[in-house]
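Blinded run. Sample ID left blank on purpose so nobody reads anything into the name before looking at the predicted structure. Input follows.
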Amino acid sequence: MIAYPDTSFLCALYRAQVNSPRAAEHFRVMPEPVFVSSPLLFEFRQSLRWQAYLYSKDSTKGFLKRSAQLALNQLNANISTGAIILVSIDWSDVVSIAERLSSQYTWTLGYRGFDLLHAATALHLGVTEFLTFDVKQKQLAEAEGLIVPF
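Blinded prediction complete.
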């Protein structure tokens, strides 16, 4: 296992965004499937549902439910074909790593819990690359010795 993504990579892969061409090209040339964990899938799926909810209340925010469902369908198709693979994680180890990251970085740099969990999962899995378009996630990953190709 070489790489692990965060939610920003999945969003760029499944929703038209400025980083979508880079995400799609990286996904296309990866020598292995994209490995994901259940917390990452939850956050990504929740973000799509949340954006559809926002749009239903105010059309200047979020996006159509149909767009969210299309992204979910594309994700599910990639899981079905093996292009995306769900891996098991040892929660106690991931949380222990996330706690260390929180103690070391959150006081001064301010990280959200899910950001720490994604980085901790990558470290737990022993990958060398962290796939993110988030500037703060990149800083955290690189501080921990992970390569961010974007």
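Unblinding after everyone has recorded impressions. The chain has a mean pLDDT of 97.
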